[in-house]
UniProtKB/TrEMBL annotation:
Pfam family, one: Trans_reg_C
GO biological process terms, semicolon-separated: regulation of DNA-templated transcription
Keywords: DNA-binding, Phosphoprotein, Transcription, Transcription regulation
GO molecular function, one term: phosphorelay response regulator activity
Native species: Eubacterium callanderi
Highest taxon in the source lineage: Bacteria
Modified residues (4-aspartylphosphate): 51
GO cellular component terms attached to this protein's record: cytosol; protein-DNA complex
SUPFAM superfamilies: C-terminal effector domain of the bipartite response regulators (SSF46894), CheY-like (SSF52172)
Keyword Transmembrane helix: no
Keyword Endoplasmic reticulum set for record: no
Limits of the OmpR/PhoB-type domain: 123-219
Record protein name field: Stage 0 sporulation protein A homolog
Purpose of the protein: May play the central regulatory role in sporulation. It may be an element of the effector pathway responsible for the activation of sporulation genes in response to nutritional stress. Spo0A may act in concert with spo0H (a sigma factor) to control the expression of some genes that are critical to the sporulation process.
Amino acid sequence: MARILAVDDEKGILNLVKRVLEKDGHQVRTLSDPAALSMNGLEAFDLILLDVMMPGTDGFTLCRKIRENVDCPILFLTAKTMEKDIMYGLGIGGDDYITKPFGNGELRARVAAHLRREKREKRSVLSLDGIRFNLGAHEMIIGEQKVSLTKSEYAICEFLARSHGQVFSKEQIYEAVYGYEGEGDSSAIAEHVKNIRAKLSVYGCAPIETVWGIGYKWQ
């Protein structure tokens, strides 16, 4: 059972989300007015669903504010499918997209995949060329510094690092990280890798190599 917050100005969508996810045993709080969302107490939620196009305060603005306070998975509910919108949302801290209109099965599967990844048991420490993964805490450490990564960014790094030297397609990475049965979102993975590279470049590290026409590998 997880505690989930859903923010959408369409009450019909909120009712659907609440009904579907509560059948899986989750506690779902819904909010139709984004301006009424308080940043206090967000740590109580295990996952947050955000509509993108809302009056007053849009989902991207909310995501930036939320990400300053908590690091739980944030999934966008949106009819915006332009690649630039997807890239922007992932760049500001979102973890995934669910495109409207969506089916009950897809909603359940994506939410379950992110929650499963949050609870996945990890073991010990993995060290590769000066980069250390604290697997139990889901942390990447370079030197004595913890690298600020989103949940999805960390998961991609850990997945590639565990099989360093092996090349994976964007679709394989997506499925391994999110556990969702279906085609991976190539745009999402590419944008996450771009963000990871930017963050690691500050430390003089560039462990993720692009294998043109195939995908990525951890060197």
